[in-house]
Amino acid sequence: MNRREFLGSAAALAALGAAGAARASGFEITRSDAEWREMLTRAEYKVMREEGTERPFSSPLDKNFADGVYHCRGCDLALYASDHKYDSGTGWPSFWQSLPDAVGTKPDRKFLRVRTEVHCRRCGSHLGHIFDDGPAPTGKRHCLNGVSLVFRDA
């Protein structure tokens, strides 16, 4: 293989890798940073776009146990049913499972440990984290930021 063939092959592989990475990290709904900032409050933006965390016990959704569905504030996708909500005592809205095909996850390596970050599968908005200390039947605790959610009555 000569230098020209090598460089051509390397460029083709790089292009394929970039295209695959874009598909793997792409979301159905995308907005510019300016659009996100315009539609979200400062606190919502910090949590949903910068993966921040709201203060515990600050969200009224933590103590909301009405029948309904919790939607993504970023794109209005239905994420969690009230039937799956429980009081974890942590100060954040907690659920033992999401609705089918509603959320995605990725490793979060901040703070010298690995946690499971949960986000809206349609727009990528950060919701919170999933822990292994929840109730049956899943044993999971989806610990969410209330500012990332909108509750809709049944």
- Give average pLDDT, whole number: 88
Structural class: alpha+beta
Helix-strand topology string: HHHEEEEEEEEE
Look up the CATH topology of the largest domain.
Answer: Metal Binding Protein, Guanine Nucleotide Exchange Factor, Chain A
In total, how many domains does the architecture comprise?
2
Share of helical residues: 25-40%
Strand order of the largest sheet: 3-4-8-7-6-5
The CATH level-2 architecture of the largest domain is identified as: Beta Complex
Q: Would you identify the regions where 5 or more consecutive residues have pLDDT less than 50?
A: 6-24
Tell me the number of strands.
9
Shape: globular
| CATH level-1 class of the largest domain | Mainly Beta
By CATH's scheme, which homologous superfamily of the largest domain applies?
A: Peptide methionine sulfoxide reductase
Radius of gyration, Cα only, in angstroms? 19 Å
What about the largest sheet? Answer: 6 strands, antiparallel
Counted by DSSP, the helix tally is 3
Assess the beta-strand content as a share of residues.
25-35%
Span of the ends, CA to CA: 65 Å
